Amino acid sequence: MNRQLFRHQATRSPPLRPGIKARVEHEAGGYLLWTNREVPRCRHAFEKKRAPGKFRVLLFGDSYTAGDGVSDRFRYGDVLESLIPGLEVYNFGLSGSGTDQQYLIWREIAREIEHDLVVIGVLVENIRRIVARYRPYETPDGKPVLLAKPYFTLERSGDLSLHNVPVPREPLTESELAGDGAAHVDRGGRFEGLRRLVAKLRAGREGAAPALDARYPPPAYDRPNDPGWLLAKAILTRCRRARCRAPVICPIPLYQYIEETASPKAYQALPELTRRPGPDPRPARGFSPSSRAERRTYRVRGRLPLTPSAHEVLARSAARTIEP
Predict the structure, then answer these.
(1) Which residues contact 68 (CB under 8 A, 6 or more apart)?
(2) 134 near 155, Cβ under 8 Å?
(3) Mean pLDDT for each consecutive 10-residue tract of the chain (324 residues)?
(4) Cβ within 8 Å of residue 86, ≥6 positions away
(5) Where are the domains of the chain?
């Protein structure tokens, strides 16, 4: 998403500018984006007190939750509202964020809002984002830059330490990073060169994407003592201990798991993601019964953003937990 839609924020990742009503160009042909005065992409005006007869959910997540690629009414949070009478979903989803930044959003602007339930939509890939200290963006003229982000480190005592606050305002180029800064850039995963090659082939031949796509799910889930997973677990634990109503962790599978080109068993085996009642983290619950051809329609032309039909699957999965 173009940086023109964001504004600098001193204590967390760049949020969307308030009061936006815009059409964003996209592989799917474009979608409508609307933000309220509190900044998140949500049509509700965030009222501190809950209205009588309403059941209020505070929803946190990244671009899959914010709804990049689809108009508001197709997002799984909005669809969820339509499935359960009396449900009110405050969507705090922020594109490009990780669970660490979502916790900061909760702490800064959400915890004083009266609610019945917190739902955290954890895209499985975002374990990479919480260990990152810089994220790539583009200037209006298409120049690649890096923006610093707040980040946590896990101390030997088990405590979390917050760094990079206030967040530097000015963008950087990679050549300007000091020390081991380049090692902390969120590059979207392993095998960057191969992924760039695949992207070029995809641009040249539409049909090449499924056969040549890079299928390397996050390795941080493979070992319970992986530093990335230990940090993620500590942040989720902090979320649970915060002043909120027993958060439901909703793992959102990567497309490799949905299309069954990789196994989700590693993250499914981690009790911190699955021990609480919540939407089933296994794609088999909602996505896998579909045919392979149908599962490929859950992302736009072989790319990552979810389509309306995929949001529908997520909403119905979440509804099975929330409605009772």
Answers:
(1) 1, 26, 31, 95, 305
(2) no
(3) 45 49 53 55 82 93 88 91 95 89 89 91 90 86 88 93 88 86 79 53 47 62 89 88 74 82 82 58 55 77 74 89 86
(4) 53, 54, 55
(5) 3-322
